[in-house]
Design a protein that fits this description.
single chain; 243 residues; mainly alpha; 6 helices; 2 strands; 3% strand
Length: 243
């Protein structure tokens, strides 16, 4: 057999193998694709942060003690109100007591509003710090896999089909308003193929490795939704190769 014929036959065989592999890959739906978008369940990661929960509890305990002092002042107002009942409504002592009561009531209201504002500010600060930490580790993981966009989604956020029995119309209105906001406005992802790149577990592991105090005890850990087959990070994505 001539050498040119051998090369011709070898070329036909190679082309046939390539075409066969391409057809099989297309039929199986497993042709490798380059994905540039990843998914992270930020709510789940935050819910697993034991350090954040401890800090929030400390803030609540701190202001709970402050509110106890406010309640003591409120009891003084009640006593003053009871004392005013002993005076004639148009008497000088009654008017003096009324002015004193109104002044203390305004001061007490201002004190309560200030305490609530300070407590909310501290809650914002620790929550923002935890969220920024999620963003930091999400960025690291996404860059490692060459992702340009990471979308926040809630794996458990599904439309509800049952409405609970509530005692008032206002509560029904609040329930629907909150539900509509979360479903139509608050969802960053309408639909996603969860067998693609899902970084939630990886980001959570990176946070816990960097700061072990964020890791919850096993008996308090919320179980994650079971991943679909081949849904592990890296099944579809590949780390970027560096030159």
């Amino acid at each position: 057999m001539k050498k040119s014929n051998c090369f011709w036959i070898l070329g036909v065989v190679i082309v046939g193998v390539v075409l066969t592999c391409t057809v099989v890959a297309q039929q199986s739906g497993k042709a490798p694709t380059q994905r540039s978008v990843a998914l992270v369940d930020v709510y789940y990661i935050i819910s697993q942060n034991a350090r954040l929960q401890q800090e929030m509890k400390q803030i609540e305990q701190k202001y709970e003690k402050a509110m106890q002092d406010v309640n003591a002042s409120r009891q003084e107002l009640v006593k003053l109100e009871d004392m005013m009942r002993n005076y004639e409504p148009n008497s000088e002592k009654y008017r003096e007591g009324e002015q004193l009561f109104l002044k203390r009531a305004r001061d007490l209201e201002s004190q309560v509003n200030l305490l609530i504002k300070q407590m909310t500010e501290e809650q914002f600060q620790v929550t923002n710090a935890a969220y920024n930490n999620v963003v930091f580790h999400t960025k690291r993981c996404a860059q490692y896999f060459g992702m340009s966009v990471v979308l926040n989604y809630n794996r458990e956020n599904k439309p509800i089909d049952q409405v609970p029995l509530l005692p008032s119309i206002q509560q029904y209105q609040n329930l629907f308003r909150t539900y509509r906001q979360s479903l139509l406005v608050g969802k960053a992802v309408v639909w996603a193929d969860e067998s693609s790149v899902e970084l939630t577990s990886m980001v959570l592991n990176e946070i816990q490795k960097a700061d072990p105090s964020t890791k919850r005890a096993p008996e308090t850990t919320v179980q994650a939704k079971p991943a679909a087959p081949n849904a592990a990070v890296g099944a579809q994505a590949r780390p970027q190769t560096r030159p």
